[in-house]
Amino acid sequence: MKDIQVGLIGFGTVGSGLAEVLLAQQERLEKRSGIAVRLAMVADITISELPPQFKGVRLTGDAAELINNPDIDIVVELIGGIEPAKTFVMNAIKTGKHVVTANKALLSQEGRDIFSAAAEHGVEVGFEASVGGGIPVIKSLKEGLVANKILSIMGIMNGTANYILTRMTDEGIPFKEVLKDAQELGFAEADPTYDVEGIDTAHKLAILMTMAYGMSITHNDIATEGISLIKPVDIEFAREFGCRIKLLAISRNHGDHVEARVHPTMVPDSHLLAKIDGAFNAIHFTGDMVGNVLLYGLGAGKMPTGSAVAADIVDIARDIRSDSVGRVPSLSYLPEHIGERKITPME
After folding, report:
1. What is the mean pLDDT of residues 261-286?
2. DSSP string, 154-221
3. What is the fold of 137-298?
4. What pLDDT score was predicted for residue 1?
5. Cα pseudo-dihedral 211, 202, 99, 319, rounded to 10
6. Strand 257-268 relative to strand 243-253: parallel, antiparallel, unpaired?
7. Cys-Cys crosslink for 7: which of 2, 66, 236, 339, Cβ 3.0 to 4.6 Å?
8. Which residues are catalytic?
9. In this prediction, what percent of the chain has a pLDDT beyond 90?
């Protein structure tokens, strides 16, 4: 069987991380998938050449050229945002190519169109890196917890917000000062709105709720409050009650309806989530069979996220090799079993 040819759209932090993972782990990935996986083409309008170690990889400034290349089997979208990312993803699907993305905003807002198109054209969509960076959260829901009714989801899902709250708690520094430091250190974006106002966390919670509960939801359905109004006095107030303030995503499954919210929460010092500091993430599930499950690790970063994207590529390569594309439903449930349910804020 011929090598699996990967086309990468976006050679920024995560894209270059993926390229490094595929190069460094090429032999290991072939041993684990049974087929050689090769980065064949990169589309990026911001660079004129690739690093020398990728001399065999073709560079183009035109994503359409990559998408329409008949030799490309898997298109990886790592540019972020809604457009033109959605157009690239939809066009790749329509040409019969499998897609991998880390784009939680796109999936949270436009996921219904994307997954419907993928089902129609018989291709897979991998999105492990969209939630939790290098933590295998999506894989756990799709496969490891498949025998469970998920009763609740709770987690710290944004490393920037958690880093800021950790510094505010441990050093007593005001929000704006920590944010400025975080931006200088590369922990926060120049425009940190999505991170500090809870929007990024809501994107991720919406994806997890869709998979856990078999329901259609976007981040706009989730009541969301960020951390920008947290002051040192709030941190001290929580400390007096033996708590730490964390930005939590919380959801509970009540059968006929679900509760969901993203907001700063006073977490008792004795709780495992109170001990998640810095840029780390942790996601806690409660299943009716398995009980409590906690997944922990780096929720962002070049190599952890690149590792998660590579895992999706290998999953798809395995399915291509065994002629079993679509073996595992992308959203854990078959499309016909994903419905609507009432969503309310936490009581």
Report:
1. 96
2. EEE--HHHHHHHHHHHHH---HHHHHHHHHHHTSS-SS-HHHHTSHHHHHHHHHHHHHHHTB---GGG
3. Dihydrodipicolinate Reductase; domain 2 (3.30.360)
4. 67
5. -30
6. antiparallel
7. 66
8. 204
9. 90
